[in-house]
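Render this sequence as a predicted structure.
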Amino acid sequence: MSPIAVPVNPPTYSIACMPADGIGPEVISAGVEVLKTLANASGDFSLEFEDYDWSSETYKQTGRYIPEGGLESLKKHDAILFGAVGAPDVPDHISLWGLRLAICQPLQQYANVRPTKIFRGTQSPLRNANTGDLDWVIVRENSEGEYAGHGGRSHIGQAWETATEVSIFTRHAVERIIRFAFEVAQKRPRKQLTVVTKSNAQRNGMVLWDEVAAELSKEFPDVTMDKMLVDAMTCRMVLKPESLDTIVATNLHADILSDLAAALAGSIGIAPTSNLDPTRTNPSMFEPIHGSAFDITGQGIANPVATFWTAAEMLSWLGEEAAAQRLLTCVESVCERGVVTRDLGGTANTKEVTEAVCEEIRSSFKKPKQVS
């Protein structure tokens, strides 16, 4: 007698939803709508969202971004979907350290991963770059380095006022991020890693990076590693984008290079970010990198594509790779049809792009499967 098949309940993932500031609420609501459409159409998983109203408005009303016990509350979730932080009437160093970094560092989300590629239907400002020519993953150290928070100011208001910003590079953190980058490169078809430093001028921390990269390269003989100074790297990204694949750099250097990468791909409005705890001890946080963009807040024209790609990265991290790939394919199909916001040269608004992607998702499940 054949064994009786026991139905398996699809997994349910708990998502902390934190729109925060500026266009964050607009793009996160679009992302949630797309994710719900995908989950409902698929039936392979479900999502539960819990809203966290932590923002600059919260800070102005209460004096803090994160309430007492807030981080512990986040730990009960499988992932965090984050919008953007920053407001015109709150100094940037207060908003960044009050919310985003106040989550990333305590939750040990030490690997910041920023994929970049030229979407079908979008155009790079590089005249010779086509779809496929620019397809990178930038891995950014996310826990220390230039953003370690060490330093201070003294003699404030005097002519000899002094400010120090101390970069911290520990072998432990450098080794774990470079090892992570090698593992990312190893899983990609080209198996290529470029290590970016500024070791000719910064002869301590950056030389440590170079030495650790050289040591770890012996553990990954199938990955081709090369090394670049950060200033030369900007030239290479513009002039020879096809020569790059996976890139690893410090907190500051990768922050700058990933914004350049997004612009070279066509718009910062399509670029995603994953703040990962590779040990999976804590939930990881996923966010578009475009910031709060108060100049267009409330106009309904924000590009939601970065949030959609971010949502796909989140699904992949949760183990739903097929759903993640379907979502990204649907987003590219919509872009290819010309349904894009004005930063990509189109006329569509946030709602129109979102509706188009939702419809593309529903339609993708109605298409007959190809028989090989």
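Summary. Residues 326 and 361 are 8 Å apart (CA to CA). The chain has eleven helices and twelve strands.
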